[in-house]
Design brief:
By secondary structure, this protein is an all-alpha fold. The protein is built from nine helices and no strands.
């Protein structure tokens, strides 16, 4: 992972509030010490209970560990609940085929959901993704996105 990407992920992680953390189980301090297991132990119960901030944190943590399938699992859970950050990160995984099969149609649709929620950079990423797509893929992506916007984000297993 490049230093810039690692720095960006750390900055995003630090922006997420520490839900339920105590001094003894502070996942931020564990992360700063490089103790990924302790950070995971603090956040996993919260994420499994459905707390979106914890799910996003675990997605970042798994990305830092280069466990992209696990990252996609946590991003998907948070994205399904409407978290735009997770939607963009999951879209990027689909765009690159990291942890999920490369799927430009799903990448577009996830970016579009986040863009519809007002995230300007998601709109830019969506538009850039179309440059890699055929006309039929763009049409399929727009159709999928309209379905998701009308019915809400897909369940965890999109």
């Amino acid at each position: 992972m490049t230093r810039a990407l690692a720095s960006l992920l750390l900055a995003v992680i630090l922006a997420v509030p520490a839900v339920g953390a105590t001094a003894a189980s502070d996942p931020w301090k564990a992360l700063q010490r490089g103790d990924y297991a302790a950070a995971e132990a603090a956040w996993l119960p919260l994420a499994e209970r459905g707390e979106v901030a914890a799910q996003v944190f675990l997605g970042h943590l798994e990305s830092m560990r280069d466990r992209h399938e696990a990252a996609a699992k946590w991003y998907r859970r948070a994205a399904a609940k409407g978290n735009v950050e997770a939607q963009v990160l999951l879209a990027t995984q689909y765009l690159r085929g990291r942890g999920v099969p490369r799927d430009l149609v799903r990448a577009y649709a996830w970016y579009d959901l986040a863009a519809t929620a007002g995230l300007t950079n998601a709109a830019r990423a969506r538009d850039m993704a179309t440059r890699q797509m055929s006309e039929s893929e763009v049409a399929a992506a727009r159709k999928l996105s309209k379905t998701w916007i009308a019915a809400g984000p897909p369940a965890e297993a999109d």
